[in-house]
Amino acid sequence: MYKTKWLWNGETLGTGSFGRVKITKNKKTGEYVAMKIMKKFEILKSKQVDHIAKEIKILSFVITFGGFTQDERNLYLDLELINCGELFTYLRGRFPVDQARLYISQIVWIFDYLHNKNIIYRDLKPENILIHKSGYLKLTYFGFAKIVEGRTYTLCGTPEYLAPEIILNKGHRKSVDW
Question: Does 123 qualify as catalytic in the annotation?
Fold first, then answer.
């Protein structure tokens, strides 16, 4: 296990193909962060090294990204902790109209920002939208995000949420996020 300035409390926030995200605490500052821990063996086995490098580059545009480090077994990404839950959890109830408008405008703003950086997200779903303690939304998981200036042909995304342009496999642009 990676040992430096971090204390591991063991609470897992999420899991994925290459590893998991855990809450960690900086020993010196007492600050909590989300530490994405990815198994290097799995990344290499599935030939996703370039994919992970691009995800790290894109993350630096979007959330508070404290950097990354590695040991012989794992890659560690130091990410902002956003622990008020996924938007998906809150959709079982109803939002007041003003709050719904605020959330919709924030999602539009997020994608306007990404698209101005030529980033296509390609995995918009309520599970990937987190609510910050300030009440603002934050987008998470950039595994399918890609910097594209024209058209791309990659078939990717969560099957239940795939855009028609991706399914048709005729190429897609930024509009695929809408």
Answer: yes
